[in-house]
Structures are given as structure tokens and as C-alpha cells.
Amino acid sequence: MRSQFMCAAAVAVLLVAGAASAADKPEFGEIGIDTAGMDKTVTPGDDFYAYMNGGWMKTATIPSDRSNYGDVARLREQSLARVRGIVEAGGAADARKFADFYASFMDEAAIEKAGITPLKADLAVIAAVKTPKDLARTMAALERKQRPFGYGSPQPSFPVYPYVGQDAKDPTKASSELVQGGLGLPDRDYYLTDDPKFAAARAAYKTYLTDIFTLAGMEGGAARADKIIAFETALAKVHWTRVESRDADKTYNPMTPAQLAAAAPGFDWKTYLDGAGFGARPALIVNQPSAISGFAKLAAETPMEVWRDYLASRLINDAAPILPKAFVEADFAFHGKALTGTPELNARWKRGVGATNLAMGDAVGKAYAAQYFPPEAKAKIEDLVGEVKAAFARRIDGLDWMAPQTKVRAKVKLANLRVEVGYPETWRDYSALTVVRGDAFGNSQRAAEFEYARNLADLGKPVDRAQWWLTLTPQTVNAFNAGSLNKLAFPAGFLAAPWFDPAADPAVNYGAIGSVIGHEISHSFDDQGSKLDEQGRLIAWWTPEDLKAFEASTGKLAAQYDAYQALPDLKLNGRLTLGENVGDLGGVAAALDAYHASLGGKPAPVINGLTGDQRFFMAFAQSYRTLMREPFLRQIIATDPHAPGQFRAYEVRNFDAWYTAFDVKPGQKLYLAPADRVRIW
């Protein structure tokens, strides 16, 4: 969604219950760097990522139930195990409720006994769709019961997705928004590109649709699948690209319901908006107007028979993980094996933890934070954030391309940046959520309806900057810049080395967690964050000259990433990953300055023959070590605004200090002439 800037780079929060004290040995090596994971036969200037991670890459393996593996995945496994202990222990009030939710998911016998009975009521409603009004009413009703967008899905389930966001031009107010969606494959390119890998994905999708229709007792699955794929291909043609959908200016399109109906004829918008809870709203923010109008045209042109099959496919697809084993296996054969190359379905308890986190993440997170995130951890990370913020402010002062008046406002924005560490200030109230032990399907739908109603209730109220999103909980292994809320969040799930180790050398911690803190701060000034002022408003506040200089530098950075070859037939999309790459560039710059400032004017100590700057850059590169299966790599390059870890580590080639630290010379593969190094912050 437009207001979210999610960063896949995990950050470690400094201490957890039982973690090493500063006097103990670091988790990795003698100083916090996994020297055994290096490959010193590689010249740093030829491939700094391989130099730091080549040894690890030769010995590490991707677990059979994962599409990728690295330290982020390792910490996520740790978080899953901790949450499992919490939900299995149960307790009173909310704890009893999330324990029942988890236990119901784990009750395979009850799920098998129920069979497809839980689907029948909704399938009957879909079968009764005969008119455009029926279609609009049914789609809105199904939206309320589907798993919320943003959790385990690259896009919304239906062609139009309603949600309550934040008005980008008046960030104190909640806005009702519509965004494109509805594709069963990860992205429009999977339908429209002749790439043989995408053609194979389309074939696997047909098999999947055929299988789930058969399992649901609906005959002629293959013919239904062909019609659905033809419909979705037409839908994909009107979809905006991922790059276009990142643009905060282009996705801000206020319309009254009457204007929407006029701009997108063919769909019964009044019935739909009434059903979605937006009918009384005077205006809506339409994120991708031409995609929404294209959908509406398809709505009128598509036979109701196809619509009924399409709606049924979306319903069954979303429900598959909580249906009998045959549905689960079909779901995994497509989403796991075909799309990401993962050979083995992960353990049921892990899937149960994921479902429980989605349903009652805040309640689980409250118990998680109490058990694993002591107050001293919060204080220490806040201190480090303060140091990196101060360094970023100094870098703003030193810019030669930004006008003085813009610098003043940029520093006010930086000062206004809210930082939340570990857990939210207030917790969600789940008393209105009904959980019935033994009713996994019903619990899932009720949890989705509860979240939808909670989100809808935000309309008409001032925006609460302290509120965390559904997919952001204390147990989350991720870091966030919340766009127009002008805040950062570092959940307690970021718990360990290599990002922060209290026993590690300070240079290592600045290079790892410091760079990611700086990365999150930089998002407030990246290609989209720079469009939001010190109040979080979408408004032009830079001078034309500022923008021209900034766009010239970001254009060079996009071109740099466009040139990276991920596979023999596949390069990165530098425009799609631009925001994250700008974040990395600014993050490293601010963290390196903060490290230098921490030395108090004294030279950095040389440890094990390594200078302070060497240790800093080594820690940065090692924090991105990742293995990916090829299908998953192809999917994230098509859909993810983050470059694969290898290429994020190459950001070092834009820093003069890296060249000095590792004696990088012309002719080496990563060498850039000084004029070609991108310098923004």
C-alpha cells in the first residue's frame, strides 16, 4: 500500500532475556564477524559479497521447507519457535483465545472430518450471482472474510481492494482507498511475458485451479481454469506495473463515488461501496485509476458464469491452508514448489503459528515482548537511533545540492521522526473476536472480519501515529518506515547477531544495525519519502533545483542496479528497487559517520589486523548473506522492491572509504571511477 515502506533487511534489537553480556564472547568470531564464512581467495574489489560470504555459501544449505535462507530466515525460525511456546502455553483472557485459535488450526482430524462443508455457504452465495448487483454485493462481502492483503500474498485477492489508509495530503485524517488486485499469479508479468519460466508458472496455475475445483466437487475444472486465466490475463493488461504503483503522486487520486462511477463504468460501484462500508464516504483515494476503470470494463464484458468460477477460485485459494490435507498439498504444489521452488511443505506448527500471528498478532506480541525484550534493550537501541539521526542531520547540513530552505525543513522532518522500538505503546483489544475451539475455518474468517471491522472503524477518527499495522508485531523479523506517519518501527523480533551483538566490536554493530537504522531513516528522503514533508503530507517542498539534482543521482543509482545480472537471462529492475537502494546508500553513509563520531576524535583501534572502516564494511556485507532458489529469485525480482542481498552488499562501491579500506584499484570488477560513484546523502 502507498503508505507502507517495508524493508526486508532485518534488524537485531540489542539484547534479549538470556543474551550474552558485553563481557561475553560474540556470537560470530572474535569480534562479531563470521570469519569462517569468508572466502579470502576472492579479491574484495572484484566481489565484496563473495569475499565476505563465499565460505558460508559453499557450506550453507536452504532447508527443504524454505524458498530462501540466511540470517533473516534463521531469526524468523527462532521467532516461530518462541511464539509456538507462547501459544501452546495458553493462559487467561486473550492468551486462552489465541491458544484456542492455534489448537484449532492444529486439529487436523477435525479439519478432515469437516471436509468442504465450511466452504458450502460461501460457494452457495457465489453460485447465486446472476446480475451485476449480485456481483458487486458478493465481492464486497467476500472481501470482509478473506485473509487481509499483505500477509503471505503479493497482492489482494480480488480485482479491487478496499482499505482504510492515511490521507497523504492530510495525514491527520484516515482515508478510504481502493487498490488494484485479483491476480492468482504473483504479478502482471507472469501473464504477459513470453519467458519460459513464467509460461511454466501459468501451466502450474492451470493445474492448481483444476485441482482445487475438483477437490471442491466442481466438475469441469480444466475448462473453468482456462476461462479464469483468460480473464486474469485481460486484468493483468490493465494493471499498473510495480514501478508505477510505487509513485506516491500517481497513486493519489481523490474521487467522489459519483466521479468513480463515471470514470469506471461497467461495475455497480454503489452496491460495492455500500457493502465494503465506504458508501457514506464523500471521497475515495483511487490508487491506480486506469486499472480500476479497466477492471470495471471487464466486469461488464465478462459472462457471469466466468465471474462465478473466478470468485469461487479466489475463495477456495484463500481457504486452502485451513482446509483438508488435499487442499493444503495442492496449495503448496503451486505456491511453494512451482512459484518458489521450495521442495517440502513446512511443519504444520509453523503454519499454525503464522496463522495465529495474523489473527491475534498483538495479543501474542504482548506476551512475546514481556518474555524476550527487556527494558535495557529498548533504551540501548533508542540511543543508537539517536546517534544515527544526529549523523544524518550533519549530512543534510553538508549537502551541496540542497537549497538552504529545504535543508531547514528536512531537519525538522528528521526531528519529527518518531521511533518505536520493540513493541507498540498500546495493544489491540480482541474482546470482540470470537474464537471457537475446533473451528479452524470459522476462526480464520471471523479473524478476518474482525480486522476488517477494526480497520473500517478508523474512518472518521484522527490518525493514531502510535498504531502498528496488522503485519507489524513485536515478534516480526523486519524493520519499517511508515511513510506519511513519519515514524520508524523496530520490532523485538530483531534479536541477535549478525545485526547487533552486545559483545561485538562497535564498528561491527555500526556497520550492521547502524546501517539498517540509517536505511530506515533514509526512507523518509528516498525517491518517494522525499515527497512527504515534515508533517507527512504529500506536497512539493523541495525546490525544482533540489529535485533535478536528486533525480540525477537516483537515476545513476537505478542504472547501476539495472546492470546487475541476477541470472544469465535476468537483470534487476533498478527503478523497482530504487527506494531500498537509496535507503542503503544513505544508511551506510549515516552509520559510518556515526561510528566515526563515536570515536571522539581518536583513531579507531586495529583489531586482528583490521581497521575500524574494514570491520564496518565487512559487517555490512555479511548482514546480507542469503541463498535463494531460482524460482523464488525470479519472483522477487519481478515483485519485490528490495534487491537480492548480494547486490545490496555491492552498495559499498559508492563509498570512497571502502576503496581506501580495501585498496580497491581500477580494473577490479566493482571499481567505479570517483565521478561514477553515486553520492546522495
UniProtKB/TrEMBL annotation:
Cellular component aspect of the GO annotation: plasma membrane
SUPFAM superfamilies cross-referenced by the UniProt entry: Metalloproteases ('zincins'), catalytic domain
CDD domains named in the record: M13
UniProt key word Hydrolase: yes
Cofactor(s) listed: Zn(2+)
Gene Ontology molecular-function annotations: metal ion binding; metalloendopeptidase activity
Keyword Hydrolase on entry: yes
Domain annotation Peptidase M13 C-terminal: ranges: 478-678
InterPro entries given in the database record: MetalloPept_cat_dom_sf, Peptidase_M13, Peptidase_M13_C, Peptidase_M13_dom_2, Peptidase_M13_N
Keyword entries, A-Z: Hydrolase, Metal-binding, Metalloprotease, Protease, Signal, Zinc
Signal peptide range: 1-22
Ranges where the Peptidase M13 N-terminal domain occurs: 44-424
GO BP terms in the entry: protein processing
Pfam families per record: Peptidase_M13 (PF01431), Peptidase_M13_N (PF05649)
Record-given protein name: M13 family peptidase
Organism of provenance: Phenylobacterium glaciei
